[in-house]
Amino acid sequence: MAVQAKSGLLKGMNPTVTVVTVVVMLVSVILGAGWTEQSAAAISTARETLNPFLEWYYVVLVAVFFVFCLWLGVGRYKNVRLGGDTERPEFTTFSWVAMLFAAGTGVGIIFWSIAEPIMHFDSNPFAADGSPESAAVAMRLTFFHWGLPGWAIFGLVGLVLAYFSFRHSLPLTVRSALYPFLGHRIHGPIGDLVDSLAVFGTVFGIATTLGLGVQQMNTGLGQLFGLDTTLTLQLGVTAVIMFIATASVVSGVKRGVRLLSEANFWLSVVIVLFFLIFGPTHYLFALTIESTGEYLQNLLAMTFYTHANKDTGWQAEWTVFFWGWWIAWSPFVGMFIARISRGRTVREFMLGVLLMPTVITFVWIGLFGGTALHQELFGDGGVVAAVSQDVSVAIFHTIEGMQLGLLGQAAGVLVTVLIATYLITSANAGTLVINTLLANGDTDPPTGHRILWGVVLALLTAVLLVAGGLETLQAAVILAGLPFSLVMVAMLLGLVKALEQERYAPRPGARTLAPTEPWVGMDQAGDTLHEPRGTAGAAGEYQPSARTGAEG
């Protein structure tokens, strides 16, 4: 059994994982605050050293994850249910999709939906800079970095966690995915290491996104109230956001997190309609449809593109960064998706996670990025110049370029509020996930630890902001994703082994076990041996439930 503290400050938590992760995070905060320049230089050097390796490693890894997730969605295991065979989803489809999108992309899509197309339009290795062809390429590349392969990363982690937890009653932690290989040893040092790596990736992934969002909120406040872009203001915004997020996560998923996610969804609908109605409507429809077609036509080539014959640094600056970001976020988003997906089949889960957020994201980028590109190609321009000076001004400068007066100012207010709500949603969901990992899968961890990790996230975000802005944030998240990528490979292999053994588990005359009961072993007569929750079967042997729902 996994060790949990029975009393004191660590009551209900895994003491080893909790102490190790808290100490490492606090050391990171101290080093970053006390030796800012040295920390930034060390992070930058590490990234530059690893770039040649990551330019092909992340490409191969993400391609494998993508193909595997497509197979799960349509293959022989598509009818396996994440829970009991008669169990039904805990949340409605609307709430589920709203939480998927809010937790999975959130602030990132607001930050990059205009900035990335504009930066690719200004410079990319596939078309002449600033040309109509470059605009088409810019949209295709942005769709690629926010599309199906990225969501496959989240989907893989989420499905593995949901499968082992809800179908076989193992703890809702990353270590459970290794049960087919390690048996009861997942509750020892190896399991502690795996969960610690998941926490590290989650913390740095969330801190990076919070840093980007806080910078953009600073810009929005400057546009609205004439405030300067200062580190002091950014630190103040971080403190306020994390205070609200921590208060929200204390209230739990069904209240604070769900309500905020649904509020985000409706605010997003309003701002999307604003761009659609008051932007170049016909152009936006045409560009989004055309870009989607080009994305699908070039998806295979883009998925395996490694930039091997060009030495411009584009691959490291863009694809490596985004794949590292998706991987670093995957423990957090995967855990959160798993938490809200009980009762769904593998097909519902995988196709929903891959398709629904991707469609919403494409519409978002098409309308936001398309409006900015239209201003550059057919209007007064200025977005490229503004973004080259400060990436965070992209959306506000685009709204200003629409020349709508008070209506444009109102839209700027709405965008700033939307950034704040997405920041809060990402932070509170991330805090809940971190505590779930530290509490050996308990989805209702102690309140004190929720508050503690809210404070730790706020401090780390502040340190990354102080240490050097966007480049340091990007480098940190790329490095944080690397160790967890190895864990993801093990999770994939563990899921394959579990599904295969579940497929062939039934035997004539053997008693079956309901899918939501604990893992079991078999005695010499072939009968089921019940074991306590979270323990191995006889001799540590892995034996899954006899009833599968899988197709032969």
TrEMBL record:
Pfam families the UniProt entry points to: BCCT
Region of interest (Disordered), ranges: 509-552
Keyword terms: Cell membrane, Membrane, Transmembrane, Transmembrane helix, Transport
UniProt membrane topology term: Multi-pass membrane protein
Main location: membrane
GO CC, one annotated term: plasma membrane
Transmembrane feature ranges: 12-36, 56-74, 94-115, 143-166, 193-213, 233-253, 265-285, 320-337, 349-369, 410-439, 451-470, 476-496
Molecular-function GO terms, alphabetical: transmembrane transporter activity
Location within or outside the cell: Cell membrane
Keyword Membrane: yes
Superkingdom as given in the UniProt entry: Bacteria
InterPro entries for this protein: BCCT_transptr
Family the UniProt entry places it in: Belongs to the BCCT transporter (TC 2.A.15) family.
Full protein name: Choline/carnitine/betaine transporter
